[in-house]
Specification:
Low-confidence stretches: 1-21, 40-87
Order of helices and strands: EEEEEEEEEEEEEH
Number of helices: 1
Radius of gyration: 22 Å
Mean pLDDT: 72
Strand content: 25-35%
Shape: globular
Distance between the termini: 68 Å
Oligomer: single chain
Structural class: mainly beta
């Protein structure tokens, strides 16, 4: 548990500390990359289902609310779910316009764990380099069918937020990125990871990639070049191994 921020505020000429705690854990993917995954209520309010009952406004002082995320206003054209909490943004459904294509992790997708998964707390993994730094925020869901559009979630605060959905029947993924559209409004945009590079909407030297364990990462474009080079060498080595295992051809 890390202390994310420390603020000093005067009250009757006495200063006291107001901390926002950041809960995180570390994980390593199959590429050998160590991730710090943050799950912090102060970064993004937890998802609340449309069937939940609204809560009464808190009588707490403004100081008690310091460090908590403010409720973003729904973007135009969005559908707001009913029954949301008065103290947090409602789940909002954004029509993406077209269905996200399906993507399969190669050479083999990770195993499917658990059953149906609804959008939960926003997860984040930080990245940093000499040229850029930031976080990869994402929501993830899982069911036995494809999605026409992302399930309702609070409107993301950051462009570059990723929504990942996995079909449990075929193991394929659908991916959307939250960014500004040509109409001047932010919404979910379906992306094709088998097509051209998906560049971060705010950081031009980073592109989207799914790791071998199915987690999104805004990696450096130079890192992707390294991955592709390794894959070429791996395929060549496997091809040579297969040829040697068959032995010489008898004429």
């Amino acid at each position: 548990m890390n202390v994310e921020a420390t603020l000093l505020r005067p009250v009757d000429n006495v200063f006291y500390m107001d901390r926002v705690y950041n809960f995180s854990y570390f994980t390593m993917d199959d590429d050998g990359m160590v991730w710090e995954v943050n799950e912090n209520d102060a970064d993004e309010p937890a998802y609340r289902s449309q069937s939940s009952q609204p809560q009464k406004d808190s009588a707490a002082t403004p100081g008690a609310q310091r460090g908590r995320a403010t409720s973003p206003k729904p973007t135009g054209g969005a559908t707001v779910g009913s029954g949301h909490s008065a103290s947090s943004p409602p789940p909002v459904s954004f029509a993406s316009g077209r269905k996200a294509p399906k993507y399969r992790i190669k050479p083999s997708p990770p195993p499917i764990i658990g059953g149906k998964l609804v959008p939960g707390r926003l997860r984040t993994a930080p990245f940093t380099s000499r040229t850029s730094q930031g976080v990869t925020p994402w929501y993830e869901t899982q069911s036995d069918e494809d999605l026409e559009e992302p399930m309702p979630v609070p409107a993301p605060a950051l462009e570059g937020t990723v929504y990942i959905h996995r079909n449990m029947n075929d193991g394929c993924y659908q991916v959307w990125v939250w960014k500004l559209g040509n109409n001047g409004r932010k919404s979910w945009h379906p992306v094709d990871l088998d097509g051209d590079a998906v560049i971060h909407p705010k950081i031009s030297d980073r592109m989207l990639r799914l790791t071998r364990n199915g987690k999104p990462s805004w990696i450096l474009t130079s890192t992707q070049t390294t991955y592709e080079s390794r894959e070429i060498h791996r395929e060549r080595a496997q091809s040579r191994a297969r040829s040697q295992s068959r032995g010489p051809t008898v004429g």
